[in-house]
Amino acid sequence: MAENARTQTARDNDDTDIIEGMIPAGDAITGTSGGALARDVGSQADLKQVDDPDGTTRATKQDDIDAGVAYDSDRRGSNG
Predict the structure, then answer these.
(1) What is the dihedral sign for C-alpha 12, 30, 28, 43?
(2) Which stretches within the chain are classed as H helix?
(3) 55 CB-near residues (< 8 Å, 6+ apart)
(4) How far apart are CA 74 and CA 43, in angstroms?
(5) Which residue in 15, 34, 45, 54 has a CA-CA distance of 20 to 30 Å to 22?
(6) What is the CA radius of gyration of the chain?
(7) How open is the CA angle 23-29-30, to the nearest 5 degrees?
(8) What pLDDT does 23 receive?
C-alpha cells in the first residue's frame, strides 16, 4: 500500500523540537485553574454545599459574562 503524500510532508516539516523548546522543561503548568470564572463558580459551590452537601454547581452564561469570558447577547426577545 502506498503511503499518503501528506504523511511524508508532515514528517518532512516536523516542528516538534522547536515547539518543545519554546517552554523550558518543567516550566509548563497544567491544570484546571481557569482564573476568575473557576474561582467564582468554586465560591458558589462552597456556599451551596453548606445547605446541600450533595448539590452540584455549574457555570452559567451569566458567570461567563461576569468573568469576561463571554458577552451578553445583542438579541432581544419579541416582547422586549
Answers:
(1) positive
(2) 5-12, 16-21, 36-51, 61-66
(3) 45, 48, 49
(4) 29
(5) 34
(6) 23
(7) 120
(8) 67
Which letter does DSSP use for residue 50 in this model?
Answer: H
Question: What tens digit of pLDDT does each residue of 5-64 get?
Answer: 888 888 888 888 877 777 666 665 555 555 777 777 878 888 887 888 787 777 788 888
* pTM for this predicted structure: 0.38
The predicted structure's pLDDT at residue 11: 84
Interatomic CA distance for residues 21 and 29, integer angstroms: 15
Report the run of H or E that residue 78 belongs to, with start and end: none
Instruction: Answer for the pair 47, 38: CB distance below 8 angstroms, yes or no.
Output: no
